[in-house]
Design a protein that fits this description.
This protein is mainly α. The protein has helices at 2-5, 9-22, 28-38, 45-56, 62-85, 97-101, 103-124, 127-150, 158-183, 188-215, 218-221, 227-230, 236-244, 247-259, 265-274, 277-294, 303-316; strands at 90-91, 94-95. A hairpin with a 2-residue loop joins strand 1 (90-91) and strand 2 (94-95). Helix 5 runs antiparallel to helix 7 and helix 5 (62-85) runs parallel beside helix 8. Supplies octaprenyl diphosphate, the precursor for the side chain of the isoprenoid quinones ubiquinone and menaquinone. Keywords: Magnesium, Metal-binding, Transferase. InterPro entries: Isoprenoid_synthase_dom_sf, Polyprenyl_synt, Polyprenyl_synt_CS.
Length: 320
């Protein structure tokens, strides 16, 4: 990631400074929780996409830096809300904000980050970006609700799964690229092509996240293996087992999902391995990786384009 950031290193640091500055509040709890989750680090992948897109299209302005902070605030707000909904206890190797400060505080500070993001967007004074981000944020919320409604349903199809991860995860990747291209003054067709890049990248990224939930190392990932099962989330590895496993394996998955229980996680991991379900999911992620790569072909050669290509490769070749 350090090499990928190199072409926008100065802008990336400017985004981090702006994030810290914009966390300021007269209410101590807001700053405490905001800093707690932001200081935990993470890849900062979504704001990085905005910066690299701007750099690939002629260079990053102060507006790109502001927009990248908007993207990170929205993403961070979704994490705060997600962890409350999922009753998560560990993220990025330490207790979640809701485990540390309580659910009510986490939800309300998540609301603060959402509204701070829109305050920053108003400063951009670009109605196209504002409209697109309003639509994106609404779509993310719908994706969260859709995932909640479908939790515990072992009959979830691959199409159902794809709809959830597109709405919940991939649309923010797409928005980071689309907004940056818009701020670079590009035509709608060019902006949409880069949005397609982000969307396919986001889908591939989430599919690998779902693989790592069954074969990743908890210390490396900074979260517990099997969390998705505890939350009743039917991800692609489980869908593949339901389609290709033995009767006993299908019943095992069905009971675990319906009960939202990881009590038999070891047995389920064995079923996932025997069916080749993680390999299947990686191949599906590779398909979206290839679609994303094709969207970069029209970009001018340079360090930023190379970095976008490197992120695309990293999305499917990682351990956390």
């Amino acid at each position: 990631m350090q090499q990928i950031r190199a072409s926008v290193a100065g802008e990336f640091e400017a985004v981090n400074r702006l994030i810290v500055e914009q966390l300021h509040s007269d209410v101590d709890m807001v700053e405490n929780i905001g800093h707690y989750i932001v200081d935990a680090g993470g890849k900062r992948l979504r704001p990085l996409l905005a910066l690299l897109t701007g750099a690939a299209l002629g260079g990053c302005s102060d507006r790109h830096i502001t927009f990248a902070a908007v993207i990170e605030f929205i993403h961070t707000a979704t994490l705060l809300h997600d962890d409350v909904v999922d009753i998560s206890s560990l993220r990025r190797g330490r207790p979640t904000a809701n485990a540390e400060f309580g659910n009510a505080s986490s939800v309300l500070v998540g609301d603060f980050l959402y509204t701070r993001a829109f305050q920053l967007m108003v400063q951009l004074d670009d109605m196209t970006v504002l409209r697109h981000m309003a639509d994106t944020t609404n779509t993310i919320a719908e994706g969260e609700v859709l995932q909640l409604v479908r939790a515990g349903n072992p009959d979830t199809s691959e199409a159902d799964y794809l709809e959830v991860i597109t709405r919940k995860t991939a649309v923010l990747f797409a928005a980071a690229c689309y907004g940056a291209a818009t701020l670079s003054g590009r035509k709608e067709a060019d902006c949409q092509q880069l949005a397609d890049f982000g969307l396919n990248l986001g889908i591939a990224f989430q599919m690998i996240d779902d693989v790592l939930d069954y074969e990743g190392d908890p210390e490396t990932m900074g979260k517990n293996v099997g969390d998705d099962l505890t939350e009743g989330k039917v991800t692609l590895p489980l869908i593949h087992v339901m389609q290709n496993g033995t009767d006993a394996e299908r019943e095992l998955v069905r009971e675990a999902v319906a009960a939202k229980s990881a009590a038999r996680l070891d047995d389920i991991v064995r079923a996932v391995q025997r069916c080749g379900s993680c390999d299947f999911t990686r191949e599906r992620a590779r398909h979206y990786h290839d679609l994303a790569t094709a969207c970069l072909e029209s970009l001018t050669d340079g360090a930023a384009r190379d970095a976008l290509q490197a992120i695309t490769g990293l999305s499917i070749n990682r351990d956390h």
